[in-house]
Design brief:
The protein is an alpha+beta fold and about 300 residues long. It has nine helices and four strands. The chain folds into two domains: about 180 residues, no CATH class; about 110 residues, Alpha-Beta Plaits (2-Layer Sandwich), CATH 3.30.70. Helix content is about 65%, strand content about 10%. The chain has a four-stranded antiparallel sheet with strand order 2-3-1-4. Helix 2 runs antiparallel to helix 6, helix 2 crosses helix 8 and helix 6 packs parallel to helix 9. The longest helix is centred in the middle third of the chain and has 43 residues. InterPro entries: ABC3_permease_C, FtsX, FtsX_actino, FtsX_ECD.
């Protein structure tokens, strides 16, 4: 009987403040979509770091013909200079830092270049002579790049030493800043959701002052009187959270899994399972918003 009464009161409240309830659902949906997008973006950054940082290499590019660098004054790197570099990489100073060394000739660099950029007209204009031979060095710890760079830089036959992490770090910096911006927008939308839930509960309480007054007179407990109002906010917020989860799942399914993953096959991307893993967090945030809003509103506007 009590459960039936509470459910009927919830239904009355939702119908009386239908427009506000819909607004709460929409604002909660948008704000939690931002929260979920920020979470997925961080998961994506983590996936890329785990995959790419395990593959990054230090590239020691050998002197080509016509280089302006002082160490390349003698022209293209000679066989003797290449042998000296190999000996240096095997030295006690560098060997403990290095996991694997691969020497890529001009012909191999050209073949890789043509394979990677196959079908692009501008790539057909590149000749084998335009590329450089290089040592591809995989480190035991990618953080020790500077040690290897300091030893190799300026050596005769080596034009430059490049750390592939620099390329990735720029990308990760952009993604992390985008994530921070998304979290900021989500925080503003969550604040708007709290204010809307608060207003909705207050209007619902004010519109039913007569009913709550009668309930006080017959000795109803505070929890029994307040529970319908609390559940109204919780239901609206939960619907918004579920809509957010559904929107994120559809977005990942059709934009990433069915489209982007087919075009960018070499990058690990977030999946629908990642959205489902975030779902409990989004639902928890929705319930927390409703709980905070309900407690603040009922304590202030509904003295029972």
């Amino acid at each position: 009987m009590r459960a039936q009464f509470i459910l009927s009161e919830i239904g009355i409240g939702l119908r009386r403040n239908l427009s506000m309830t819909v607004s709460v659902i929409l604002v909660t949906f948008i704000s939690l979509t931002f929260v979920g997008a920020a979470g997925l973006l961080q998961l994506q950054v983590s996936k890329l770091k785990d995959d790419w940082y395990g593959k990054v290499e230090v590239s020691a590019f050998l002197c080509p013909t016509g280089s302006a660098k002082a160490q390349c004054a003698a022209g293209e790197a000679s066989e003797e200079q290449i042998a000296d570099i190999e000996a240096l990489l095997d030295s006690p100073e560098l060997a403990p830092q290095i996991e694997q060394v691969y020497f890529e000739t001009k012909a191999e660099a050209y073949a890789s270049f043509q394979e990677y950029f196959a079908g692009m007209e501008w790539a057909e204009m590149i000749r084998e002579e335009d590329l450089q031979a290089s040592f591809r060095i995989k480190l035991v710890d990618a953080e020790n790049y500077q040690v290897v760079s300091d030893v190799l830089s300026g050596r005769p036959g080596i034009e430059s030493v490049e750390d592939q992490r620099k390329i990735f770090d720029t990308l990760f910096l952009v993604l992390n800043r985008a994530s921070v911006m998304t979290v900021g927008l989500a925080a503003l939308m969550l604040l708007a959701a709290v204010l809307l839930i608060t207003t909705t509960i207050r209007l619902s309480a004010l519109s039913r002052r007569r009913e709550t007054g009668i309930m006080r007179l017959v000795g109803a407990s505070n929890l029994f009187i307040q529970l319908p109002f609390m559940l109204e906010g919780a239901i609206a917020a939960t619907i918004g959270a579920l809509a957010s989860v559904a929107g994120l799942w559809l977005g990942v399914r059709y934009l990433i899994t069915d489209w982007l993953a087919q075009e960018v096959v070499w990058v690990p991307l977030v999946q629908e399972s990642d959205v489902l893993a975030l779902a409990p967090l989004l639902l928890g945030v929705a319930v927390l918003l409703a709980a905070i809003s309900s407690l603040v509103t009922l304590n202030r506007y509904m003295k029972v």
